[in-house]
Design brief:
Elements: E1 10-11, E2 14-15, E3 17-31, E4 34-43, H1 49-61, E5 73-80, E6 87-95, E7 106-110, E8 113-123, H2 125-128
Parallel strand pairs: 1-8, 2-8
Antiparallel strand pairs: 1-5, 2-5, 3-8, 4-6, 4-7, 5-6
C-alpha cells in the first residue's frame, strides 16, 4: 500500500508571486501541525466548483485573513469523507493559532503527519496587488 492509499489529506500550496507553472506530481512531505483559515467547498467538483471557489470567493477575500504566516503562500486542503464520493476542500492561508476567523470562513487544524503535497504556482497579482 502506498502513502496515497492511507487517506492522507492533500495540500496544495499556492505561491502567489511565481510565474504560471503547475507541477501536479505529489511529493511526500513530513509537516508539523499548522492552522489554516479559508473558505470551504464540499462536493465532487463536477461543475468546476474548486476553480470557482478560488476566483469568486477565496481570492477576493484573502486579505481578510490576518495575520498570515506567509502572505505569498495559500493552501488548498482536500479531505475525503469515509464512505462518500464527496470531499471537503478548503482554500485559504496558514495562520498562527488563535487567529480570528472572518465571517463565512472556517478554521482547520492540520495535525503533524506525512502528506502528499502538490505544488501549483500561479501568478495572482491581479488579485493581490503589485
Amino acid at each position: 500500500m502506498n502513502d496515497l492509499e492511507l487517506g492522507y489529506d492533500l495540500l496544495y500550496p499556492l505561491n502567489l508571486f511565481q510565474e504560471e507553472n503547475s507541477k501536479m506530481e505529489p511529493k511526500m512531505v513530513n509537516l508539523p501541525a499548522f492552522q489554516v483559515i479559508g473558505i470551504r467547498y464540499t462536493g465532487k467538483n463536477q461543475n468546476n466548483g474548486i476553480p470557482k471557489l478560488w476566483d469568486q470567493e477565496v481570492l477576493p477575500r484573502c486579505d481578510e485573513i490576518q495575520p498570515k504566516i506567509n502572505p505569498e503562500i495559500m493552501y488548498g486542503l482536500c479531505d475525503m469523507a469515509d464512505n462518500s464520493d464527496e470531499f471537503e476542500y478548503i482554500g485559504g492561508s496558514q495562520v498562527p493559532p488563535g487567529t480570528e476567523i472572518p465571517a463565512g470562513m472556517v478554521s482547520k487544524s492540520i495535525p503533524a503527519n506525512k502528506y502528499a503535497v502538490f505544488y501549483h504556482l500561479r501568478m495572482l497579482l491581479k488579485y493581490h496587488g503589485p
